[in-house]
User: Which sequence fits this backbone?
């Protein structure tokens, strides 16, 4: 199964495609923050659609956002999620949401693990060098969590 993990963001959206415990491709969609909001959302939509064509995942998974942490960030994440959902629907891709605690517990064994612990364990589990970019690491963690969950079902 080819799984695309997504780390939502309105300035940088991380993505990673995992297949058989190997990272096929990982990167970011970068959007200029000085562009008008509608242009940023449209850019994410268009770029994500292109990625779906190029990488052809079986499923797209993303980490749900917390409203209580920062309402402004939640709004930005919701806009990028909308672009991802529309592009995925247009391309006929199944989409799943994972909670942050579910991802952390699956990767580290603790639902309250920090980002550095998740990054470290992703590197160890997949036997890859240290991942310096947080968005890419989070996207890989989403895909890996889904893969691990699917294997246990």
Assistant:
């Amino acid at each position: 199964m080819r799984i695309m993990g997504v780390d939502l963001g309105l300035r940088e959206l991380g993505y990673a495609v995992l297949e058989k415990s190997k990272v096929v491709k990982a990167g970011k969609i970068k959007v200029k923050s000085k562009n008008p909001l509608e242009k940023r959302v449209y850019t994410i939509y268009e770029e994500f659609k292109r990625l779906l064509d190029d990488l052809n995942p079986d499923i797209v998974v993303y980490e749900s956002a917390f409203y209580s942490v920062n309402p402004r960030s939640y709004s930005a994440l919701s806009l990028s999620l909308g672009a991802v959902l529309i592009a995925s629907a247009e391309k006929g891709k199944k989409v799943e949401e994972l909670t942050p605690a579910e991802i952390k517990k699956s990767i580290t064994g603790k639902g309250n693990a920090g980002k550095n612990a998740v990054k470290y364990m992703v590197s160890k589990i997949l036997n890859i060098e240290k991942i310096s970019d947080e968005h890419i690491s989070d996207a890989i963690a989403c895909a890996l969590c889904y893969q691990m969950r699917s294997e246990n079902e």
